[in-house]
Structure to design on (733 residues):
C-alpha cells in the first residue's frame, strides 16, 4: 500500500520555515504555507495568490501575501495556549498528500488537565477561491475554552507592505457573522477581499482587535470530558483581477460553503484530487521510499498548477511565498513541463500560452539591450516583465548589493521557451498552439539568437559571447556549449516552423519567409558548437565554455574550505568558485541530456564522470539532470541517489536557503519535475518517436516494476513495467 501521509512529531520552533514549505497546500490559485494557525508574521505564514504581484518603492516586485484568514489560537480558563509560547505535551503535523489536507494536533497541559486542539485545512480544488478549516477541541476536564479565529492583516512581507487601505468589517448575513477584509495592492490598486465565517453550535461573538490588525471571531464553549467540540470555518478570497464584485463573490461563496458544510466540500475537494491521481499516480514496486517521494513531488506540482486559467505559468518556488519574487524561470519549460504534457496536457498548454502571451515583454527586453527578437525575462512576472535586478545578490561582507548578470546574460532562457512550445507540440500533436502568435513566438526567439551572433574576423564560424550558462558561478563567458546548442536548436526549429506555417497560412503579416529561413539555416549551420576534447586526461569531455579547462582544477572540499562566511556567494567577480572548475549545477550535462542521441555512450559517460565531482549541486535543478543522463548511459543505479535527491528536495529539505544575504528558501517544483522525468523518461525509458509512445525500461536495483499513465498524441496509455518487460495499452481499451 502506498504511503500518502507525511507527519512531523514534536515541536521545534526553528523548523517553522522548512515545515512551511514541506506542508504547503494549494490549488494552483491559492498556496498556503504549512505553518501553524497561531503563527504571526515572524514565523512566516503566507497565503499566496498565483499571478498577482506588487512593488513598493525601489523594493523587489513580488507576489502579495494575503491577510491570513487561517489565523487561530486557543484560550483556556483565560490563559492563551499557542506555539511557540506555551510548550506542548505533544504535537504533530500531518499532510495527506493524496488529497491536499493539512492537519495538526497539539496537546497542552493546563493547571486543571490536558486540552487538545486538532485542525484540518484544505485549499479547495473544487472551488479555487475557497479555504476550508475544521477544529476539534477536547479536554479531559470541563474546560472553559475560547477559540479565537479570524483574519490577521499584519502580513509577513519581504519587500512590502503591499496592501493598502485595509478595511475590516463585519456583516450578519450568515449565523455568527462574516468577517470581511477589503484592501488593494499598492502599485496597480488591485482590489483584494478576504472573508471568513464559522459554523459552530457554541456561542459566538465577533471580536475586533483592530489595533493589532486582527479581526476575529471569539467562540466560547465548555468542553465535556470524552467529547470534542467541532468548529468549521470558511475563508473565501477574491481579487479585482477576476471579478468586478470581489466582495459579493466572496460572501456568496462563503454562504454556499456554509450551507454545504465541511464534509460535503471536503468530499468535492478530495474527488478532484482523485481525478488528478487517476492520470498521474506513479506506482513504484519494490521501493516504497521512491514511490512516496515521487508522488509527494507530484503533489506539489498539482498544488501549484494553474488550472483556473488558460495562460499562466508556475513560479520557481511555486506558491510558497515571496522568494525569487514569485517569478517564472526556465525551470517551467526544462523541468516541470514534461509532467504536465504527460498527465495533463491542458495545463501544459496553459504554461506555454503564458510565454506566447508575454512575447511583447520579451521583445521589449531584447530591444532594451539593442537586440532583435525576443529575449525572455530571466525572472518573468505578468506581461513578461523581468523582475530580475542587476543586483540580485547581497554581499555578506559589505552588505552591499552585488552586480550580477543573470538578467542580461542568461540568454539561454529564450531557447527554453521555443523548446517548451515545440516539445508540447511533439508530445500532444496539438498544433493549434502554433497559430499566428505561436509561430511568431518561435520566429522571434530565433531572431534573438540571430542578432546575438558574432563572427570573429579570422574564423569562418559564428559564436555567442559574453553569456552565463546554467552554471551561474562563471559569468560572462564565451561559447557556453549549452547556450550555443540551444540557440542552434531554436534557429533550426524556426526554419521548420516557418516552412509549415507557410503552408498553414500562420506566418506574421509581411514576413519574408524565404529570406528568414535562409538566414536562420545559415546561422544554425555555422554556429560553433564545442566538440569533445582530445586533450590528454580529458578525452571526450566537452569544455563548458572557452577557457574553462584552463581554470584551476581543484576539489569541491578545497573550494568550500576557502569560504569566509557560510552564506557567501560562490560566483561573481570574487566568488570562491569563479576562478576554478567547480560549477554550481549541471551545465554540459544538461545539454547532453537533451541531445544524447548526437553522442556515443563513451562521450556521455566521459562528461558525466568529469563534471559530477566538479559540481556543487548548489541548485536543486542539478541532481535531476545527472540522474537522467546516468539513465541514458545505462546506469540506473548511478542515477538513483541523484533521483532521490530531487524527489526529496522538499520532503527532506536541506537545500540552499541563501544566496549571499538574500533568502531563497521555498518549495522546489523544478526538482519535483526532474524526479518525475527521471522516473518516467529515465527508469521507465518513455519517449516519443515519430509520434509513437515508446518504453524501454532500465530500472535501478531497488525497483522491480512500475505502473503509470501517460498521454501521447491525444491518447492516454497505461504503462506497466515488470523488470525489463513493458506493456503499453490505451486506457479504456
Ligand atoms: O532557474 C534557477 C537557476 O538555474 C539556478 N538558480 C535558481 C533558479 C530558480 O530555480
Amino acid at each position: 500500500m502506498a504511503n500518502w501521509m507525511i507527519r512531523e512529531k514534536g515541536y521545534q520552533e526553528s523548523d517553522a520555515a522548512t515545515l512551511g514549505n514541506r506542508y504547503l497546500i494549494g490549488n494552483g490559485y491559492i498556496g498556503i504555507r504549512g505553518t501553524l494557525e497561531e503563527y504571526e508574521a515572524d514565523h512566516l505564514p503566507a497565503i499566496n495568490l498565483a499571478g498577482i504581484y506588487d512593488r513598493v518603492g525601489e523594493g523587489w516586485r513580488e507576489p502579495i501575501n494575503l491577510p491570513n484568514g487561517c489565523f487561530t489560537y486557543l484560550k483556556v480558563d483565560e490563559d492563551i495556549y499557542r506555539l511557540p509560547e506555551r510548550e506542548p505535551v505533544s504535537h504533530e503535523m500531518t499532510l495527506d498528500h493524496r488529497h491536499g489536507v493539512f492537519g495538526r494536533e497539539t496537546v497542552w497541559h493546563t493547571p486543571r488537565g490536558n486540552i487538545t486542539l486538532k485542525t484540518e485545512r484544505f485549499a479547495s480544488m473544487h472551488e479555487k477561491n475557497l479555504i476550508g478549516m475544521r477544529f476539534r477541541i477536547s479536554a479531559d476536564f470541563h474546560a472553559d475554552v475560547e477559540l479565537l479565529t479570524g483574519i490577521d492583516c499584519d502580513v509577513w512581507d519581504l519587500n512590502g507592505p503591499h496592501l493598502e487601505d485595509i478595511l475590516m468589517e463585519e456583516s450578519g448575513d450568515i449565523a455568527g457573522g462574516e468577517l470581511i477584509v477589503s484592501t488593494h495592492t499598492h502599485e496597480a490598486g488591485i482590489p483584494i477581499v478576504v472573508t471568513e465565517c464559522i459554523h459552530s453550535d457554541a456561542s459566538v461573538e465577533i471580536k475586533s482587535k483592530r489595533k493589532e490588525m486582527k479581526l476575529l471571531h471569539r467562540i466560547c464553549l465548555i468542553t465535556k470530558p470524552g467529547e470534542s467540540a467541532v468548529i468549521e470555518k470558511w475563508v473565501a478570497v477574491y481579487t479585482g483581477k477576476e471579478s468586478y464584485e470581489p466582495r459579493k463573490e466572496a460572501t456568496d461563496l462563503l454562504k454556499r460553503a456554509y450551507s454545504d458544510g465541511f464534509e460535503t466540500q471536503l468530499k468535492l475537494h478530495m474527488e478532484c484530487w482523485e481525478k488528478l491521481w487517476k492520470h498521474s499516480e506513479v506506482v513504484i514496486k519494490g521501493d516504497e521510499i521512491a514511490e512516496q517521494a515521487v508522488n509527494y513531488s507530484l503533489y506539489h506540482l498539482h498544488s501549484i498548477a494553474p488550472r483556473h486559467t488558460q495562460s499562466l505559468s508556475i513560479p520557481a518556488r511555486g506558491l510558497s511565498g515571496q522568494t525569487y519574487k514569485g517569478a517564472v524561470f526556465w525551470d517551467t519549460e526544462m523541468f516541470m513541463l514534461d509532467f504536465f504534457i504527460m498527465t495533463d496536457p491542458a495545463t501544459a498548454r496553459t504554461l506555454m500560452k503564458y510565454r506566447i502571451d508575454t512575447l511583447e515583454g520579451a521583445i521589449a527586453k531584447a530591444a532594451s539591450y539593442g537586440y532583435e527578437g525576443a529575449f525572455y525575462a530571466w525572472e518573468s512576472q505578468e506581461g513578461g516583465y523581468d523582475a530580475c535586478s542587476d543586483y540580485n545578490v547581497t554581499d555578506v561582507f559589505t552588505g552591499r548589493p552585488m552586480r550580477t548578470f543573470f538578467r542580461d546574460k542568461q540568454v539561454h532562457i529564450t531557447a527554453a521557451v521555443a523548446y517548451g512550445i515545440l516539445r508540447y507540440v511533439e508530445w500532444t500533436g496539438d498544433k493549434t498552439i502554433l497559430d499566428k502568435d505561436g509561430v511568431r513566438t518561435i520566429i522571434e526567439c530565433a531572431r534573438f539568437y540571430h542578432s546575438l551572433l558574432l563572427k570573429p574576423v579570422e574564423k569562418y564560424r559564428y559564436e555567442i559571447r559574453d553569456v552565463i550558462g546554467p552554471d551561474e558561478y562563471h559569468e560572462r563567458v564565451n561559447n557556453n556549449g549549452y547556450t550555443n546548442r540551444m540557440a542552434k536548436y531554436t534557429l533550426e526549429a524556426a526554419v521548420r516552423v516557418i516552412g509549415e506555417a507557410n503552408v498553414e497560412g500562420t506566418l506574421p503579416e509581411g514576413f519574408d519567409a524565404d529570406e528568414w529561413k535562409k538566414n536562420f539555416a545559415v546561422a544554425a549551420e555555422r554556429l560553433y558548437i564545442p566538440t569533445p576534447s582530445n586533450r590528454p586526461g580529458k578525452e571526450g569531455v566537452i569544455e563548458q565554455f572557452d577557457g574553462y579547462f584552463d581554470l584551476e582544477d581543484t576539489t569541491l572540499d578545497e573550494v568550500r574550505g576557502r569560504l569566509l562566511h557560510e552564506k557567501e556567494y560562490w560566483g561573481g567577480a570574487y566568488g570562491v568558485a569563479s576562478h576554478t572548475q567547480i560549477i554550481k549545477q549541471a551545465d554540459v550535462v544538461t545539454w547532453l541530456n537533451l541531445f544524447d542521441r548526437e553522442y556515443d555512450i563513451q562521450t556521455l559517460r566521459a562528461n558525466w564522470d568529469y563534471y559530477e565531482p566538479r559540481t556543487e549541486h548548489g541548485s536543486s535543478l542539478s541532481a535531476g539532470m545527472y540522474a537522467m543522463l546516468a539513465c541514458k548511459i545505462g546506469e540506473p543505479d548511478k542515477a538513483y541517489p541523484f533521483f532521490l535527491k530531487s524527489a526529496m528536495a522538499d520532503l527532506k529539505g536541506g537545500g540552499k536557503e541563501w544566496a549571499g544575504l538574500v533568502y531563497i528558501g521555498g518549495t522546489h517544483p523544478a526538482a519535483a519535475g526532474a524526479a518525475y522525468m527521471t522516473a518516467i523518461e529515465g527508469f521507465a525509458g518513455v519517449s516519443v518517436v515519430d509520434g509513437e509512445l515508446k518504453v524501454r525500461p532500465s530500472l535501478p536495483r531497488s525497483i522491480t516494476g512500475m505502473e503509470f499513465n501517460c498521454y501521447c498524441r491525444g491518447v492516454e496509455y497505461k504503462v506497466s513495467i515488470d523488470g525489463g518487460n513493458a506493456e503499453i495499452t490505451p486506457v479504456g481499451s
In short: DSSP finds 18 helices and 28 strands in the chain. The pocket of 5-hydroxymethyl-3,4-dihydroxypiperidine is lined by residues 316, 324, 329-331, 470, 472, 619, 621, 670 (CB under 6 Å). The CA atoms of residues 41 and 155 lie 6 Å apart. The radius of gyration is 27 Å.
